Amino acid sequence: MSHSILFKGLTLIHDAYHNKGTAFTEEERRLYGLEGLLPTQVETLERQIKRVERHLEVKNNDFERYIYLSGLRDQNETLFYCTLMSNPERFVPIVYAPTLATVCQKFSHIYRRPRGMYISLSMRGRIESVLRNWPIPDIRFICVTTGGRILGLGDIGVNGMGIPIGKLDLYTACGSVPPNVLLPIQLDIGTTNSALRADPFYLGLRREPPDQEELDEFVEEFVQAVQRVFPQCCIHFEDWKGTDAIRYLEKYRQQILCYNDDIQGTAAVTLAGLKTALKIKEESLSQQRFLFFGAGSSGIGTANMLVSALQQEGLSEQEAITRITLMDINGLLETSRTDLSPQQRRFAKDLPPSEDLLSVVQKIRPSVLIGVSTSGGAFTQEVIKALCSFNERPIILPLSLPQTHTECTAQQAYEWSEGKALFAAGIQFPEVTLNGTTFYPGQANNFYIFPSIGLAVYATCPKLITDSVVIQAAYALSDQVTLSMRERGRLYPLQADILNVSVTSACRIAEHIFDHGLATVERPQDIRTYIESLLYKPRYPIYSDEKFTSDTP
């Protein structure tokens, strides 16, 4: 692809998309008025990455490293993504979880330059015209949040913008989706957080969120505006208040190309870990009994996905539901409760009320315990020992973020289970050595799922993202955990190989999309070759005929 340069000198250096910094050649410097504006030495991209790494080494913590990398992205997009893709295992925790929790808490205080778009309630009636202010017409993915429920931090309003930015960075860093087709958006609907509304540096509306009817009208206008302005765009809903997240996914999933990562991504990465654990146990999904501690959008979404997966194994819907029990902040989801949502009531059991996790574990005897509660330490020694009393290898998945909210640590799970537990958490815990045996806890993080779904959707332009598509993403991920990895207790592939993992998963997902008639592009003869031809490769454009040319799609 050729890029005509309409500007020169400092204007070119300040354009993050075209800037090459010290990598501009001597000829380019003469042609574009850069002589004297850069140091004499012409450097390679690889040398520039080494300098970035040295800059990062002297930073005191990952929060400071995040700020540095954000500045780098604003200055030189190619160098930023090339750095991330050179070592995802190192850099993903900086630009994504767990660092994003701190970033979002301080977002208004560290704000420097706009990235993405902010659509506020004051723009009602003209959202379409506002969206047309975005300079790139072919947007394929919008990651959008209201900031209503961010990483266990609650409602943080526009400070939640760090999440869409971080998620879309991983579409590229972990899935090779071209960054120019990605758009982070914050819907500014106000915040229930009175401390933020009083903060002089807070950048959002200083008001309470609207009632449900007004919010629904606002979201509907936004969704329909996206269809007109970016007709091939997939809307990725992220970190909405739980009831809103479930309601909007149910409303739009059969109407438009959309996806909710909190609900479907969490469900898929959980299902992938379960499938791997069951290969170790040599058991089927339909043989398990599942207990969720947490029944918000993530818990309900994962439970619903499990129902679909169990039905694929031959169970009826009701048979699948009977194998799944949930608890929330008010206790067991049981039929006498009057405070359950329709989605929760689907899983209500005809059992006595209970708010005690241990007693519920002893009553239903689950083989799988999943934590999505943000209740730190909820999986106590007594709970885990109870699991082990009727399970040779209990599956324990404390998925809550950040680390202070996780239901138990890897050290606790392995010690209290005497090494029996098959374990993965929402964060990456270090290896644990117990009685001479080393255990390798997995990270059940959605970055194993949404970049691969994103790449497959980018390649196939499907009409919808169905449950079967998301389940295929889970199974594709699990199938990449080798026997040697499983023998070490690993439930997920190595993070260091995330780019290859995402491409392989995307090929499986794309094949499923083509097989089920969901794609709107012609099926290629070789799906993997086709997808590899679309991958973003962070390389500098080269000078040719007074234009920059690039092999980047």
Give the terminus-to-terminus CA distance. 7 Å
The number of helices is 25
Q: State the assembly state of the protein chains.
A: single chain
In order across it, which strands form the biggest sheet? 9-8-7-10-11-12-15
Annotated CATH architecture of the largest domain: 3-Layer(aba) Sandwich
Number of strands: 17
Strand content: 5-15%
What name goes with the CATH superfamily of the largest domain? NAD(P)-binding Rossmann-like Domain
Mean pLDDT score: 93
Helix content: 40-55%
Give the helix/strand class: alpha/beta
What is the CATH fold-level name of the largest domain?
Rossmann fold
Q: What is the C-level CATH assignment of the largest domain?
A: Alpha Beta
* Shape summary: globular
Low-confidence stretches: 547-553
Count of domains: 3
Gyration radius over CA: 24 Å
Task: Give the biggest beta sheet.
Answer: 7 strands, mixed
Written description of the protein model:
It is a single chain. The protein is α/β, with parallel strands linked by helices and 553 residues long. It folds into three domains: 81 residues, Up-down Bundle (Hemocyanin, N-terminal domain); 169 residues, 3-Layer(aba) Sandwich (Rossmann fold), CATH 3.40.50; 184 residues, Rossmann fold, CATH 3.40.50. It contains 25 helices and 17 strands. Strands 9-8-7-10-11-12-15 form a seven-stranded mixed beta sheet, with helices on both faces. Strands 2-4-3-5-6 form a five-stranded parallel beta sheet, with helices on both faces. A three-stranded antiparallel beta sheet has the order 1-17-16, with no helix packed on it. A hairpin with a 2-residue loop joins strand 13 and strand 14.
